[in-house]
Write a structure and sequence with these properties.
single chain; alpha+beta; Rossmann fold; two-stranded antiparallel ribbon; 4 helices; 34% helix; extended
């Protein structure tokens, strides 16, 4: 829903204008996990993330994303990782990369994205870990 414009304008002595919305803000999610739960409940069938796949698109909806993130998060914890541990993600930009990064955040892990090009540099592997 779009609200009608309602703006408070403050004119300062130096001529600067400060514009503020007069509409109160909705509550803000404190974590990405809370945010994902919120939008999965509000708009479960809306597209959360998508990427080209062949001639079409691979789309993941909010409710699907939440389930996938929870499953990946459980798998990460089952590997013995604990909150604060780092998870190196050596990958190009993709839906899977995004879901894995969210899964890490979901359980308090630190996602460390590394561009896949670094894997191609001779002798660079030891620097990645």
């Amino acid at each position: 829903m779009t609200l009608p414009h309602k703006i408070d304008i403050e004119t300062r002595s130096d001529g600067a204008l400060i514009l503020r919305s007069a509409h109160p803000l909705d509550p803000v999610a404190a974590t990405t996990a809370e945010w994902l739960h919120q939008w999965s409940a509000k708009t479960p069938d809306a597209v959360f993330i998508a990427e080209r796949s062949g001639a079409g698109w691979r789309e993941v909806r909010y409710a699907e994303a939440l389930g996938m993130v929870q499953a990946l998060a459980g798998w990460l914890l089952a590997q013995g990782l604990v909150p604060g541990d780092r998870v190196l993600i050596l990958s190009g930009n993709s839906v899977d990369h995004g879901l894995l990064a969210l899964a890490a955040q979901y359980v308090g892990l630190v996602a460390v994205p590394v561009a896949e090009q670094y894997a191609l540099i001779p002798g660079a592997h030891y620097r990645l870990i």
